[in-house]
């Protein structure tokens, strides 16, 4: 590369959506000269496609929800029809966002593709997430609220009612994905939650299948798992809790092994079912299957443990670990989450994850 090409690459790193006109203005070049340099950089493989995506072979792309979670806990018995004194706490949420931040804290290169409102909540979410995650693919939607989930709890901590404003996710279209596909396709693997509309989920699954991009599905809930298409060809890993797995498998009763088998017949290559204190069950098309018991420990808060498992698992797979060790790294990451009140543990890093893995799964240390 010559000096001009290096300068252009540096500007693109700072803003992948910078226009050729802006590049020309910044570098005091003609637009035609910039077009020539861009063509040369594309042929060299330094940038990919029209969106000026820089190739990052180990980058994980997380697609899905980013919302604000609030808990309002009553200070005394809830009285309906009148004002109740409460204590309100607020945290970042959304499966894709949580997984992305966890991965970023573990040192992985990770991008988040989501939508937020052009509002204070959206700004707050991005300010918390951006230090660990590339949020350049996130779109701000005017006249829409950032997704919020509010749980009202009684004074004993039991839920009275939960309120969800997630209408913003319905604005996501296939065109939104298509415009960002060059960035998605340059990732080493993709994490997809089920917050976006059904046709968008199907498009991502089909494109990953066609382009052989490893894809992990993390359902948000049992109702939202129904958004997934009947054909799961293209899903490399499906990670679900028991309720989500049973719903996806169409089983009202039965055991998790049956659910695993059914989901494999739908097209998924690997299925992992998390069962809380009972540990996990896994099965894949290669014939590998088994269980990993969860160690006994004092649980402070289970919020975010499922997202943490997915994060640790993807961290392991992206670093070339075996399927079983990646599962144990996932469990190690969830152990860390279970021992804090935070949805994403702010102390999480590679050293802590490896320490936890050695403590609870020392036979592979």
TrEMBL record:
Its EC number is 2.7.1.83. The keyword Nucleotide-binding does not apply. GO terms for molecular function: pseudouridine kinase activity. Keywords: Kinase, Transferase. It holds the Pfam family PfkB. PROSITE patterns: PFKB_KINASES_1. It is an enzyme of class 2 (transferase). The keyword Kinase applies. Gene3D superfamilies: 3.40.1190.20, Winged helix-like DNA-binding domain superfamily/Winged helix DNA-binding domain. Residues 59-343 form the Carbohydrate kinase PfkB domain. PANTHER family: RIBOKINASE, SUGAR KINASE. This is Pseudouridine kinase.
